[in-house]
């Protein structure tokens, strides 16, 4: 319902044409490949691939589409991941529709747009985790044991414990589950 309403609101703008809508990341990738839009408007959280995953994939394959993320997640880690994936804009859904449309136009014109409150948050809180620590914490978030993680990532169980211990220390977490939760809440996973 929200997707349809948003598409209709954008479609009312004289200079904006909505060429497709998608309910998950895989549909979004297919729609970009089929319709070749100038701008992809996406959310962070979607079924299957997230908006961040979609952005990373489009960046990896060199697709020229500009990406504007419109989300409820004011997490500095998400913003950093988005910018690392070549996203052109990151704004919050609770902004007035006029600001969202203006952000879309600016992204279309080649500018970068970041909600000011997100820019300040991203500046103040850097992700302390290494890529390996993030990978292990993602596994922890799925409920995997250290033995399972070691097998999946071809690591020794002691190595898994060491990485998770480092991550727990960096995040001031009492256990691995809390470390995974904190990292996810901050948008670092």
Automatic annotation (TrEMBL):
Q: Which UniProt keywords apply?
A: DNA-binding, Phosphoprotein
Q: Which organism is it from?
A: Amycolatopsis antarctica
In terms of superkingdom, the source organism counts as Bacteria
> What Pfam families would the database entry show?
GerE, Response_reg
Record-given protein name? DNA-binding response regulator
Q: Which residues carry this modification: 4-aspartylphosphate?
A: 43
Q: Which Gene3D superfamilies match?
A: 3.40.50.2300
Q: Where is the Response regulatory domain?
A: 1-108
